[in-house]
Structure formats: C-alpha cells, structure tokens
Amino acid sequence: MTQTDSRVTHLPTGSYYTPSGEYDDLYRRSMEDPEGFWAEQAESLDWFKPWEKVLDWQAPYARWFVGGKLNLSYQCLDRHVQTEVKNKVAFYWEGELGETQVLTYNEMYRLTNNYAAALKRLGVKRGDKVALYLPMIPALPVFMLACARLGAIFTVVFSAFSGQALADRVEDVGAKVIITSSGMHRRGKILPLKENAVEAAVKCPCVEKIVVVKHTGHHTEMDPDRDVWLDDILAGVDEYVAPEAMDANDPLFVLYTSGSTGKPKGILHGTAGYALWIAKTLQWAFNPDQKSVFWCTADIGWITGHSYVVFAPLELGLTSVMYEGAPDFPAIDRWWQLIAKYGVTIFYTSPTAIRMFMRHGEEWPAKYDLSSLKSLGSVGEPINPEAWLWYYRNIGHERISISDTWWQTETGGFMISPTPGIQPHPLKPGSATKPMPGVDVAVLDPDGKELPNGQTGFIVIRKPWPGMLLDIYQNQELYQQTYWSRFPGYYLPGDFCMKDQDNFLWLLGRADEVIKVAGHRISTAELESSIVGHSAVAEAAACSRPDEVKGEAIILFVTLRKGTDPSPEIKAELTRHLRATIGALATPEEIFFVNLLPKTRSGKIMRRLLKAVATGATVGDTSTLDDGASIDEARAAFEELK
Ligand code: 6R9
Predict the structure, then answer these.
(1) Which residues belong to any copy of the AMP-dependent synthetase/ligase domain (predicted)?
(2) Which of ligand 1's atoms lies nearest the C-alpha of 416?
(3) How big is the CA angle at 428 (ends 426 and 432), to the nearest 5 degrees?
(4) What is the ipTM, given to two decimal places?
(5) 26 to each of 23, 53, 468, 549, 610, how far by Cα in Å?
(6) Of the residues 269, 277, 300, 379, which should be mutated to test ligand 1's pocket, given the most ligand atoms within 8 Å of the CB?
(7) For a tag site, which of 109, 207, 208, 449 has the least CB within 10 Å?
C-alpha cells in the first residue's frame, strides 16, 4: 500500500456528534490507571454479582472482572425489555429474494427464550458445545443468544465453508449439536447446507443431533434418530429460561481462524471483558445514538459479525439492518437501495466491497438518497487511499467521517480506529489513525527495539485489554507460541505497521503466512495441506498476489505425482478439491505446475521467492536456495501464462 500525505481534515459538526471528552485525556487515563479506567467503564454492564478484582494479569493470561457474574443474553435483551427499548426494532432483516422481517427487542427476547428452551430439551446445558452453520437469517443471532443464555459455548462456522471444513471445526470443538438450515440463497442459487452438516455429523462421533431451520423450500432427507426440524422442537414452547449466571471469564464462544499452521485455530473469547470491549469500542468508533440505524455488512460467520452485527449493537439497544444475500444481487445497487430504504445512519463494510463498487462506477450509489448516513466504517484489510477517497466522496458525500477499524478475531473488537464518539480526529485516507483507549501500541524491529516514527516494523500491544482472547481452544502451547513468544510479555498481532510523524498508525498487512482474500483470512499452510491431500499432488506452495478488488488473490505452485501430467482438467479438478475441502474462499486465481519447488537447503519452501515470481517482482536474495533451477522454472510457467 502506498502511503499518502493527502490529509482530509474532517471535523464533523452538528448535533449528531456529541463527543464524550478529549481523546488525549481519556487515552492517558487508560494508560496511567487501566484498572481504575476499566472499573469505571464496566459500570455500564448489568452484573448479577459485582467483580472482586478488575484485572488478574499473569502473562500471557488476562482475566478481567474476576469474581463477577453476568449473562450476555441478559445484557442484550432482558435489560432492554424492562424499558422503552422493548418495542424498538432490533433487526430489520431482508432476504436475498426480497422477503423481510422486523424483529423488535421483545420479539428477540421471546425467540431467544424459546430457542433456549428447545435446546435445553435436546439436552444442551452449560458448558456444552454447539456448532452453528447458518446463513444470515435471524435464527443465527437468536441461537447465539440462546447458547449464551444457557452458558453453552457456541462456534459459528461460516456458511461458505465446505462440509469437510465444518467437520474439522465440529470435531475440534467437540460439538454435541449442529444447527443448520435446509439451505441458503446465494445469487439466486440454493446452497445445500444441510447436506454439508450431515457430512460433518457422519465424520464426527461427538454430534448427537442436527437441528434444521426451514429456510429454502427444497427437499432434505431427515434421519429420524439424528435430525430434527426447528419448527418441531419449538412447537408448543413458550417459556422463560432463566439466564445462567456466568463467571466473568467463562468462555462465550470459539471462533476458528487461520494462523500459520495448516489447521485453523479456535480463538476462545470470554464473557465480561468481551462484552464490555465491543460495546465501548462501537460507541467510540461510531458514536451511535438511540435513533441510529446501524448496518455492519459482515457475515456473522466472522468475528466482525459476532461483535458488531450481533452482540455490541444489541448491548447498546441499537437498531440494525441484517441482509442475507450478495451485494450485487440482483444488481450492484442492492446495498445502496437498502441504505435508502431503512435510513441507515452508520454503515460499516470492507475495502474489498468498496473496490468492487468503485469498479462498477459512482452512478450506482448516486441514484439513491444516502443522506441518512452519519458515519462510515471499514474493516478487514488495509484500505488503499483511492478506495478510501471514493467511499468518502461517493457514499459519505464529503460530509462524514470514516472509521477505518483495525482489529482481529483475537482482539474481540476494534483496536485502532478514529474515535468520533470521543473526539473526531482529522483523518488521513489509508490510516487507521490512533489506538482505542486501553490499547498500548508500539512498533518494533525484529530484535524487539522500538522503532522511531516513520519506520515500518511489527506492531505489538503492550498491555492486556478487556476484549483479548482467553486462549486458543485446547492449545495453550500454540497460544503462547503464536502471540507471546517472539516479544515476551507483548501481544503480537502479526501485522506490519508504521507510525508517522503525527503518531498516526498505518497498518500495512500481514507479516506472516496469512492471506486476506476479500477480507477473509486463510493461511498458506491450510491451502497447501488441502491440496497435497489430492492423490495427484506431490508438493505444493501457496502464496498470494495483489488483486485490485479482493486485496489478495491465491496463487498455487504444484508438483504432480508421476502418472499425472499438467492439463486444464487437472487444474479444474484441483480447484474443485480446494473448494470441497475448505470452501469457495479457497478458490485459487492460478495454479502453476512445476517440477521443483524452490527450497532452502534445510528443505523449507521459499514462498517469498514464489510470491516475487507471481507478482513479477525481483526475486532478491537467493543465497539460501537449494536449487536455482526451480525459480527459473516457476518463472517460465508464469511467463507462459501471460
Ligand atoms: C476484523 C478482522 C485480522 C487481520 C489483521 C489485519 C487485517 C483487519 C484491518 C486490517 C488493515 C484494517 N485487518 N482490519 N488491516 N486495516 N482496518 O478482519 O479479523 O479476520 O481475524 O483478520 O485482518 O491483517 O491482522 P480477522
């Protein structure tokens, strides 16, 4: 990404902006007295029992609000139904086919209690694991809340993942129940979620039941011992289920994400710290008020959807929009139409979506009245200044602020972002600006020395924050090694960063083997372990190259086993294999067949060299390369394709 000096001095005015104080003061307080600061903030949660200790920090484990008891479904629903929020809209839901549903807080409360009662009857209790494999339909947030109510630990698996990818996660978490739908709509097609869930259930002996939400009309075979329709288990249920008094640090959910290994890791989040962090950061970054209509376009299958489609907006009693389908279905103006229709005031999306809209032209958003918008946001990858400016001009009409929020599955909520809810900063297109209160950022060189402003290095977080992950599920060793071993005592996110002369932060992409395709996180190791699982493949190396819309695109270098020759057919077959074992997001842009992969003398694949070949860059230092011929070969394969 290129840095730009073009600064947009954006100081919003008007009654909407009621900043709660001075950013510098609040930030300083959060650094000087973190425990006092967070104790004060935590007054905004409803506690069944107050905490005894704000923070127990035994690096690398932080436990917040020790001794406190609460329930997140109570925070999101019970609290509100005792006030005038009861009849306020929680979700305007719209399906891809245009069908709609309006869910008030009271309706969400009723549904959550009933779903919790139905789960209880299936034998789900506190501490049990439940996998949710659902499209963007209201049943998904309702089941998340129902699990939270019962104290069952849920794991949401993105609906575009394959049956095999679902099975891997279900098995790792040990889910007793999979909740899915008959199918889902995507660009006019129906995708068979139930069949994928069956594939996972057959592979995982831990699964006792599949609950099926009727969503698409097509037929699905029901196994009478294992499969139940949601409608059947809900029949006749209308009851209150008391929310479990959860410990502040009881696990809430596990969300699988990609790291540097071939297997996704289960990021484990807790209850109180997470609940507080997401609600506070939403307020600080977007400054909502009670009239706001918030639309975070992320799928709930990712952390952004967990924190900012489901829990934080409900905690704050906000009205949200939830949309099932693709942004370009039936046409590229669907989202602008929805903003105008629902009077969306806060719109939060990804750079990849913005770049797609840019490509189709500004005439599409120009057809709609977007004047309801008061705040914009971006997440998922670095936003290039051109996309930022396009968004600022064509969606924000140069009148509203953009919060470029940098964060991760592991951080629970926003870490670095403009904070119009505290005090609007001037903005620089492409910079996520400043850390949130409580986030102690430094930029280090490879030896752990802090770099002067202007130089790029590893971003680290030097203090625990309430939204920090509890652990990697059932893998403490990987947790310590991944985040805490390189710079002991500091959390290592794995991104490159540069602090400029004004102390603005520029997040410059991953420093490790993680690729971001259309904002979705996937690792080279995952792609490689999938593809070498195909009987025709001997070895493979994955890398990425920049893509104008998707940010990065997947490139694979493959050596075939004896007996299989490179051909368009085997290429198509390997693409199918990747989609079947991981999901559609693993679709490679290109597969190159070579006889040798470039390796170090110790046998490590040099992906850096392949990436240079795939991007047409200079290869650089090859002194550790074992066989120089392999690079020439990769280059020849690449040239041939051009
Ligand atoms: C929320 C989410 C995390 C990785 C992160 C970074 C990239 C996310 C960004 C950003 C620059 C932003 N990332 N937001 N990079 N600017 N505003 O995306 O979580 O899927 O875990 O990915 O995404 O590289 O390390 P997750």
Answers:
(1) 80-465
(2) 17
(3) 95
(4) 1.00
(5) 5, 22, 20, 37, 46
(6) 379
(7) 449
